[in-house]
Amino acid sequence: MRQNYSNLQLTTLVVLRFLVGWHILYEGIAKLLNPQWTSAGFLKESKWILSGFADWVMSNSGILATVDFLNTWGLIAIGLGLLLGIFSRVAAISGAVLVFVYYLNAPPLTGLEYSLPTDGNNLIVNKTLIEAGALCVLALFPTSKIFGLDAWLLKRK
Amino acid sequence: MTDRMKAENPKGSDNRSNEGIQRRTMLKALAGLPVVGFMGFEIFKKNNYAIEKRNSVLKELGLDSIEFPESNYGKSKPSGELIRIGFIGFGTRATQLSKALGFMHPMEVKKGQQNNTLTDWMGQEYLNVAITGICDVFDLHAQKGMATAGNEIRPGGQDAPKLPVKRYASYQEMLADKDIDAVIIATPDHHHARIATEAARAGKHIYCEKSPALNEEELNELYTAVKNSQVVYQLGHQITQSIVFQQAKEIIKKNILGKITLIETTSNRNTSNGAWIRHLDPNGNPKPGNEDTIDWKQWLGNAPDAPFSVDRYYNWTKWFDYDTGMIGQLFTHEFDAVNQLLHIGIPQSVTSSGGIYYWKDNREMPDSLHCVFEYPNRDLTLLYSGNLASSRGRGRVFMGHDASMELGNNAIIMADQNSTRYAEGIRSGAIDPGAPMISFNPGAGQIDAVSSASEKYYASRGLTTTSINGRNVDVTHLHLREWLECIRNGGTPSANIEMAFQEGIACIMAHRSYLEKRTMSWDSENKKIV
Description:
The structure holds 2 protein chains of 2 kinds. Chain A is mostly helical. Chain A has helices at about 5-35, 40-45, 50-60, 60-85, 90-105, 125-140, 150-155. Chain A has one domain. The two termini of chain A are about 15 Å apart. In chain B, the strands form 3 sheets. Chain B has an 11-stranded mixed beta sheet with strand order 15-14-13-12-11-7-10-9-8-18-19. Chain B has a 6-stranded parallel beta sheet with strand order 3-2-1-4-5-6, with helices on both faces. A two-stranded antiparallel sheet of chain B has the order 16-17. The longest helix of chain B has 30 residues, at about 30-60.
């Protein structure tokens, strides 16, 4: 694979990877450290096209527990993948999908009102959507084969 | 440039700098590690900060040493002998009570299986009881009761004994039967005291829905009958079985609120069902029942004669011959909640006022009612304000000089901005009078002094569930379980006859004050209302 990044481009991409990875990893760990955490609160607020899905998850404590487990460990795995640069592309793509699902549950569209206060002023675009976009960029502009354990994986091939 | 070469040509060539380059490649590959390490350190720091802050607040409040008694729920095996229970009255409340005992109508079980909502119920502790008697003046309800009692799918599974279920034509017949050990009374209120009194005399244990009695004479008679018997009497107030009440009890015991001089309790409803208009089904058609299927004479009991009407049968709460309206149906729960926590007992005086301001049908009961209960010996006023035409939540609030506690599905304690005790904490910023100082998570069984903003938000909306040892448990089930435990092992249940008497007197005083438009007082020497 040829990568023609300048040093500055490479540095910027690695920093972006660390920032997004940090955020996602900490989101996962914070949930892991809080035994009372459950996605039910978030899902109760779900509006728009995924609200039916959210209701289904909440309808059964078994499904809810599974979703909580997958979400927490998914976030941790994706966060570690991005920070350490291991299976980085898989991490970036699945991260983009996961974060986009969060967005679809609570998009700031006109007419949808949420009872939890939101961070800043948003119209259609919010920070969750931007994070999903950033993850797409990271998937298309990989750096983990230089600054990441993927370099080591590549070598072993 | 070398980076790129390395990436493109990881195997490298055999020149001298190869080793150095490989080491650098290796180091670059590990670039993420220090970031992860830094995060680990920061998480450690943050957790320590939270624990320290929590501990300092809890210590300041004297709550660091609280240990809640661990419940044996779900761990104990059914003990003692099977208790054979008879239901007197099998309407809506009785279906809930039988469900809490472990019995559901086969149709409901099927529905639950289809919706996958039976898990919590099937996990309910087996109480080692059998419903062996049903008595209802309405054939349809009696048949429902028989089918419910005979349903074989229930907690306890195969081990649960299957006894025949008998329908009794009258409650007197049931009380005379030696094969009934205990009765659950879930009739309209005007039967409660009379049936419970006769049950006590017949030696049957009693679980009776509120209200205990409609007037002073029958309340006194009930009290004497239960006192002179060996039976266990439990009044149907399930909400204090919630784990949150145990936590609130600790808050009161530790005097976190300071001197409490005012307690405000409310009912806030705004539906026709909530205003006791219940004779129509969801499609607007009259519910079943006529003079052929309802034994109207028996339904009236000792109440004054009135022609049969479906309105009276289903909406009896509207008339004072059958109950005391919001006082009997709603305030009773409020009184019990406060009395269980503070043991306030009988008020010295009660003043009520209100009127029929919204539901202008043929009712006697007011839809807006406000009662003031004075306890000068305790320096305390208990307020009740009920309204059936606005559902704005007003909560149940205990107001102390140092803090206030709102008690519902959860308990939220807010420091008072002018508190003496917390003045230093407020000045230093450790306590914010604008945010909950302590909140409870009923699921966790522990006090949470520092929770995140969204947790606080969800807790205040009551989105948390009450659970014991990790299970969702119906509070009515716990209340019945307590009653059954006292029957088997002795002891006094929480809503015992003393509590029922205090509640009964307070409610009768409030009701009479509304009717007679004057302040009612309690003559504690002669034990009567004046």
